[in-house]
Amino acid sequence: MELRRKLEILADAAKYDASCASSGTDKRDSRAGGIGSTEGMGICHAYAPDGRCISLLKVLLTNACVFDCAYCVNRAQSNVQRARFTVPELVGLTLDFYRRNYIEGLFLSSGIIRSPDYTMEQVVGVARELREVHGFRGYIHLKTIPEASPELLAEAGRYADRLSINIEMPREQSLKELAPEKDFAAIRRSMARMRARIDEAREGEATARRPASKAAAPRFAPAGQSTQMVVGADAADDRAVLGTSVNLYGSYRLKRVYYSAYSPIPDASSLLPPQPPPLLREHRLYQADWLLRFYGFELDEIMAGAEGGMLDLGVDPKLAWALRHRESFPVDVNRAPREMLLRVPGLGAKTVEKIIAARRHRSVRAEDLARLRLSLPKLLPFLVTADHRPRGNLLDRPDLRRLVAPKASAFGALARPAAAQLALL
Ligand code: SF4
After folding, report:
1. Does residue 65 have its Cβ closer than 6 Å to ligand 1?
2. Looking at the 3D structure of the chain, how many domains does it have?
3. Mean pLDDT of 148-161
4. Are 111 and 63 in contact (CB under 8 A)?
């Protein structure tokens, strides 16, 4: 098979992997005009540890797999065209795209070829050759196979910037039913091992930085580890999904949990739902995840009042919380502590820092917020500024939700079909 055709198949097959930072955003495409797409295949974006946004060639080594996970288009019984790169082919492609300035790194995953160890050896082989033979300094994200030997995972961490292991399902029982060859305990064990090695490398780095030290700093996945969960393939509700995330962040200090809305596949198993979940569900999960990690919310606070354990699709989780806790508002932008400002719908963490810096010098007014390009209609019912106080009983109005909720059309982008991206070659 021609290399170009392999690339088409294996870049397309990788698009189901959500482990790229751009996956949490709206789906946009430029077919009706404009340029650029947040969807499609081939190149994805990630953030380096120093905050730079980088483009990655996102491919599978192969889409052939001996496992038969019901939700996966690449499963053994799936009737899709298969392809497989050799290690030199993939190394050559990566270097070629890098030299042409198309990419700044590689995101590599794979179906399981013969065994987890054999596959992991091939995946590590690509990274090893890039780093050791070609002196490749670009970013590498390797998706690892939890059932592979700890030695191979350790080697992967020496070459990769980020490693990830998919947790796949929010619940152990669902994994047993839908991916019986996967081992929930092995996934957890591998995550724990990775955590220990990342910590060890960081301690070694700190020691190596001390003036008297002659030790070389060890290297192990300096950009940490992440995971991905398929959402909507089983009956787990949002509370269960987010509960698993809280547990994973707490147990293994993951950098990210990515949520991937289940996409129906041809000849799907009867264990799977006939309809995909709304894409907005994935979006709400990312928003809730953000609140848990950066805004001081507890899971119970986010989910209190959520019907049937599901997040409200009509409004974002912070606005939903504010509408249920109107007694906590309005918040005085010039006096409130940071943690309360972070709870105001429409105020992001960076904006809160700007407000806190500004109010040290002068009183913040509504026009200052407008200058920060904030949505005042959403914000002002919940805020007091130097020149504004919500009118009378605005916060008690039964129709407050209608007044502050985004119009349904704002979600249109999440309902459109996926975009196609230009070919790489
Ligand atoms: S192991 Fe991975 S590639 Fe193979 S069927 Fe399962 S999810 Fe798909």
Report:
1. yes
2. 2
3. 94
4. yes
